[in-house]
Specification:
CATH architecture of the largest domain in chain B: 2-Layer Sandwich
Helix content of chain B: 25-40%
Order of helices and strands of chain B: EHEEEEHHHHHEEHEEEEEHHHH
Oligomer: heterodimer
Largest sheet of chain A: 7 strands, mixed
Number of helices of chain A: 19
Number of strands of chain A: 30
Largest interface: A-B, 20 and 16 residues
Bound molecules: flavin-adenine dinucleotide
CATH architecture of the domain at 32-137 and 207-297 in chain A: Alpha-Beta Complex
CATH class of the largest domain in chain B: Alpha Beta
Largest sheet of chain B: 5 strands, antiparallel
Number of domains of chain B: 3
Strand order of the largest sheet of chain A: 3-5-1-13-10-11-12
Structural class of chain A: alpha+beta
Strand content of chain B: 25-35%
Distance between the termini of chain B: 54 Å
Structural class of chain B: alpha+beta
CATH topology of the largest domain in chain B: Uridine Diphospho-n-acetylenolpyruvylglucosamine Reductase, domain 3
Shape of chain B: globular
Strand order of the largest sheet of chain B: 4-5-8-6-7
Distance between the termini of chain A: 51 Å
Strand content of chain A: 15-25%
Radius of gyration of chain B: 19 Å
Helix content of chain A: 25-40%
Number of helices of chain B: 11
CATH topology of the domain at 32-137 and 207-297 in chain A: Aldehyde Oxidoreductase, domain 3
CATH class of the domain at 32-137 and 207-297 in chain A: Alpha Beta
Number of strands of chain B: 12
């Protein structure tokens, strides 16, 4: 047996305490709102009440005269610069279809005019005095309406364009189109003993971070704008604010303090341009925090996607063809539209071995809330279709769905044509899978849920029926050849280190994980790391927290920076010990001779290098881009009980297994796994956007139901280690994948309990009941 | 409402005097949680009644007398023979809300989703109102229309008398929710009085998917004098459609709400019957 490569790790693969735990537990000022000065102006926005309208006139003169009002912004007094609010690599694979303010409103919750006043009440009173005349336009309230011939054009402004050569036809409401083919899909279908053609619908959802969108802008003594903001993408934020205001990047500093959750929603620049503009206009600190209602209406959402799966299978279990067509409703603006739909294919299709593959994704504008990045990023939607059809294929050939997955899932050393074909805005990167413990995930999960006791639905009767369902899952870790992360690390007199990273901890624990990685590399302890993330003036660049990249990408940057510092530490340590460099090693925060007889502490090395002789700053710096996006894998299982009289579903037990490579911090990894799973459970069961004429009618936590701890079913997280050679100390990623499981798992479990197959969720009791009533026994 | 001033009277008569003086500008404040749902910005003076000794639960002969400012959490924790009020209180919102939200607050301004009016209707409770002197109102009369109207003149609810269940009485309530802390899709309560195998009297009330909490007379009529058996419960539950205008909730159809109410009535009746029959010793 090969030796466990993690056996000698002293920091990595240990559940050390989060580096920010104490400050958060003590309630120390940590979040954006904690830093708003008492004299900050309060910003409020007048939002569009209409899904689609042209602004014929705005009169802000009364509002400007209202008590306490310091400035009013609207399309007549700000620069008109087309840009994209999505925080992505530059130039973005998304249309430039947004202006700070426009003469048209495209969804209920679009910007009309903003006020900065001394108090919130004064700002709200001023908003009420803004007079707007609208010419109401016919709204496009579904993707079918958007695709129809002669549909109203949502983006008819001449400036709308894409900054890179990708398909974009705003006159047809088409935001993006992407596809790939491998082998011969039609031929594959013909060779099948059984063919499937099913269409699935996946719904809107909001990320619901407990800290809403919030930003603060101040002008510093040098006249620069300092934006303290709750963001996942500080560097993209700086670039996009500069672009939107038409000022140099040099004028802006973006600081990301602690963040109260993002889940993708804060990979978007929705407030920062406005607070910055007000700060410039007034010279005063300007603070803007969304209400929960604004978070729902104007904040970003998960794209609702229609997924059509066509597939063929032979009696022996060989999958002869898989086709996926996706229609993505991106709402009123197109940020992330292309990349989300690409990930429907790229993060899902490679999971099963198949030579004949078809993928086509299309993205359309509608006059509905705007889609954005959301944990799972398209894979969540596509896995619902894929894993439902996989169960159907298994049933058609009379094979246990678990065995069918074991037979067909991708394994270490195997590739998929999809990896090379589908990237994000460009072709992908050819890749073979390195680490893969999916097989073990399936075995362990099956055991934990009691799979062997699973009975066919036809053998079940009575009001309450139990069912067991499963799904196999994958995601990626970073976007290869696109994402970049940087880190630097310098030593202090007491042997502590400042670790400066552009990577963005948004509550995930990534500061801790990066500190563990750096400490492991430096042979010191995590508590010696003073982590600072992220500040565009102080820390190296990093694209930010998205695409499951932080541990794998930024972690490797941190490891390389630590290795660079370590080289310098060894050099100085050797000099102090009077030994050749190849005769010394780092161990327990010391440089020592190989036999351990002579040693000098990091603290002494720091003091020596800073004050004594041959002085220099020991500082390591590195950046990293990834060559591949190694998938984490997971197998999810649930046992549910269906009340066949009401359609209500009770989750009795949920098992989330996860292969994330090395779990750098197992406790945090379990937290991500449980959190992502719970997030997916309420997405599958209770979360829904309800609309009347394009207006969300349930924009509050009273009416939009996310699961809280009270609702949490027993969730068993099982970490199944593998070792990814290309990742820092064997790590891949963990944060997104777990949300992909619950919808297909419950869909399959409902079928196993009752024989009812639902092609759309949330699985509300009424839908479940109808489906059960339609089952012919 | 916008609270602009706050007063804490020392006695019940003083509170009533304050309220009468303030007229429309005064508002009784108990837990204050309902302010969340009263989002007009009318400026009011809050008259705090939480220090007037109205927080208690007393067993007084045939009744449990519950003070109007008793927090729901206290009712949830209380245990005594033939007492059933804890069950529904456990299902209302969150610990934090139950710690401050009071019995009186729940039933003096009734929101469509309120659970306690439904339970109190089924239990045939009596509301005690102070208007210089204390007067009792049966639940049927009290919940005929929005009770808030009764309190405009400065009167104050002081307590609620909930009958202690008799040996042959049984009670069951069902609250169907999407998540634990959410409002009910439907909320149902039933009290059955058995005479041997048969139903002697029945009170069945509903709330949440209908405009205002109410009893279901057709359902009750279909129970009285008949055997306490599932088939009878099922048939009676099927009358719910005739008794109230069921509305769709949570994106679901009115038909579904009615169906859910029927199943919940059946479940509540089964529970009440089991309760009434008592445990086989
Ligand atoms: C998020 C949330 C969820 C909730 N969910 C539910 C639920 O699912 N089911 C449910 O039943 N309840 C629920 N509630 C509680 C309910 O809606 C009310 O908020 C609560 O019962 C009010 O009690 P209070 O003591 O806070 O009353 P207050 O807010 O202080 O008062 C409410 C009203 O009653 C008047 N009032 C209060 N006491 C008296 C009195 N003694 N005499 C005369 N008038 C009086 C007040 O003037 C005011 O008009 C929820 C509350 C919240 C905030």
């Amino acid at each position: 047996m090969s030796q466990d490569p993690t056996a000698n790790f002293k920091q990595v693969n240990h559940s050390v305490t989060k580096v920010d735990a104490r400050q958060l537990a003590l309630g120390k000022p940590s979040y954006v709102a904690d830093f708003a000065p008492a004299d900050a102006l309060v910003v409020k926005m007048l939002w569009s009440p209409h899904p689609h309208a042209r602004i014929q006139s705005i009169d802000v003169s009364d509002a400007e005269k209202m008590p306490g009002v310091k400035a009013v912004l609207w399309h007549g007094n700000v620069p008109r610069i087309a840009h994209c609010t999505a925080g992505q690599g530059f130039p973005e694979p998304s249309p430039y279809d947004t202006f700070m303010f426009d003469t048209k409103v495209r969804f209920v919750g679009d910007r009309v005019a903003a006020v900065a006043a001394e108090t919130e009440e004064q700002a709200l009173a001023a908003l009420a005095r803004i007079k707007v005349k609208y010419e109401i336009l016919q709204p496009v309230l579904s993707i079918d309406e958007a695709m129809a011939d002669g549909a109203p054009v949502i983006h008819d402004e001449p400036e709308a364009h894409v900054p890179i050569p990708i398909p974009y036809e705003p006159k047809k409401n088409l935001v993006a189109r992407v596809g790939c083919e491998a082998g011969d899909f039609e031929k594959g279908l013909k060779e099948a003993d059984f063919a499937f053609d099913d269409t699935y619908e996946t719904p809107y959802a909001q990320h619901c971070p407990i800290e809403p969108y919030v930003s603060l802008a101040q002008i510093d003594s040098a006249g620069r704008i300092v934006i303290t903001t709750s963001t996942q993408v500080p560097f993209h934020c700086r670039r996009i604010v500069a672009q939107t205001l038409g000022i140099p990047v040099q004028k802006i500093r973006v600081i990301k303090p602690r963040i109260g959750g993002g889940f993708g929603s804060k990979q978007e620049i929705l407030l920062e341009d406005i607070v910055a503009m007000f700060a410039l206009r007034t010279g005063r600190p300007c603070f803007w925090q969304f209400t929960r209602e604004e978070n729902f209406r104007t904040g970003r959402t998960r794209h609702p996607i229609r997924v059509r799966i066509r597939a063929g299978v032979k009696k022996d279990g060989t999958i002869t063809a898989i086709g996926m067509d996706c229609w993505n409703n991106t709402g009123a603006y197109g940020g992330h539209g292309l990349t989300v739909v690409s990930c429907c294919g790229s993060k899902v299709l490679p999971l099963y071995r198949c030579e004949n593959i078809h993928f086509l994704g299309k993205v359309y504008y509608t006059n509905l809330p705007v889609g954005g990045a959301y944990r799972g990023f398209g894979a969540t939607q596509a896995f619902f279709g894929m894993e439902s059809t996989v169960d159907k294929m298994a049933e058609a050939i009379g094979m246990d769905p678990l065995k069918f997955r074991q037979l067909n899932h991708i394994k270490s050393g195997e590739g998929s044509p999809v990896f090379a074909a589908l990237g994000e805005g460009k072709e992908g990167v050819p890749m073979t899978v390195g680490s893969c413990a999916l097989g073990e995930c399936i075995v362990k999960g099956a055991e934990a849920i009691g799979w062997k006791n699973r009975a066919d639905w036809r053998r079940k009767s009575g009001r309450y029926r139990r069912g067991i369902g499963m799904a196999a899952l994958m995601q990626g870790s970073s976007i290869p050849h696109i994402d970049m992360g940087g880190a630097s690390i310098k030593i202090n007199e007491d042997g502590s280190f400042n670790l400066l990273v552009g990577a963005t901890d948004l509550g995930t624990g990534s500061d801790t994980v990066l500190a563990q990685i750096a400490a492991e590399e430096l042979a010191t302890t995590t508590d010696k790391m003073i982590v600072y993330s992220s500040d565009t003036d102080m820390t190296p660049f990093d694209v930010g927290a998205y695409a499951s990249s932080t541990t794998y990408l930024s972690g490797e940057a941190a490891r390389k920076a630590a290795a660079d510092a370590k080289r310098q530490i060894l050099h100085t340590g050797a000099e102090m010990l009077n030994l050749p460099e190849d005769q010394v090693v780092c161990k327990d925060a010391h440089v020592q001779s190989r036999d351990g007889q002579h040693k000098v502490s990091y603290s002494d090395i720091a003091c020596y290098s800073l004050y004594s002789k041959n002085q220099y700053q020991i500082i390591g710096t590195a950046s990293h881009i990834t060559q591949k996006s190694p998938p984490p894998f997971a197998a999810h299982f649930a046992e549910i009980e269906v009340d066949t009289w009401t359609g209500n579903i009770k989750v009795l037990k949920y098992v989330s297994t996860i292969d994330c490579g090395t779990a750098v911090n197992p406790a945090l990894c379990e937290g991500q796994t449980e959190g992502g799973t719970l997030n997916g459970i309420s997405y599958a069961l209770t979360e829904q956007y309800l609309f009347r004429n394009g207006r969300m009618t349930n924009a509050s936590f009273t009416d939009y139901h996310i699961f809280s701890m009270r609702d949490k079913p027993p969730i068993q997280a099982i970490i199944v280690p593998s070792y990814e050679e290309t990742g820092p100390f064997g790590a891949k990623s963990v944060s997104e994948i777990c949300i992909n499981g619950p919808a297909p798992v419950f869909g399959n479990a409902i079928y196993n309990a009752t024989g009812a197959r639902l092609n759309e969720f949330p699985f509300t009791p009424e839908k479940v009941l109808k489906a059960i009533q339609a089952v012919k026994r | 409402m916008k609270l602009c001033e706050f007063i804490r009277p020392a006695s019940l008569p003083a509170a009533r005097d304050n309220l009468r003086e303030l007229g429309a500008k005064g508002m009784i404040l108990a837990g204050g949680t309902a302010l969340h749902f009263m989002q007009d910005h009318t400026p009011v003076t809050a008259v705090d009644i939480t220090r007037l000794g109205l927080s208690f639960i007393k067993h007084e002969g045939a009744f449990y007398n519950i003070g109007a400012t008793t927090p729901l959490a206290d009712i949830q924790r209380y245990r005594a023979p033939r007492w059933a009020m804890h069950e529904i209180c456990r299902r209302i919102s969150t610990h934090q809300i139950r710690n401050i939200s009071t019995l009186g607050g729940n039933i003096c301004r009734v929101f469509p989703w309120a659970d306690l009016p439904v339970v109190l209707l089924a239990m045939d409770a009596r509301m005690v109102i102070y208007s210089g002197k204390e007067t009792e109102f049966p639940a049927d009369e009290y919940f005929k229309t929005q009770p808030a109207k009764r309190f405009l003149g400065g009167d104050i609810l002081t307590s609620v008398k909930v009958p202690a269940l008799q040996a042959h009485h049984g009670f069951g309530s069902i609250k169907v929710v999407r998540t634990e802390a959410s409002f009910a899709m439907v909320t149902i309560a039933a009290r059955l009085e058995l005479d041997g195998a048969n139903i002697k009297s029945a009170r069945v009330a509903a709330g949440s998917a209908i405009p205002f909490p109410r009893r279901l007379p057709s359902v009750e009529a279909a129970l009285v004098g008949r055997e306490a058996a599932t088939a009878v419960f099922q048939e009676a539950a099927g009358k719910a459609g005739a008794d109230a205008p069921w509305r769709g909730r949570e994106g679901m159809s009115p038909d579904y709400s009615r169906h859910l109410a029927e199943v919940s009535i059946l479940d509540a009746l089964e529970r009440a019957a089991t309760f009434a029959r008592g445990r086989a010793e």
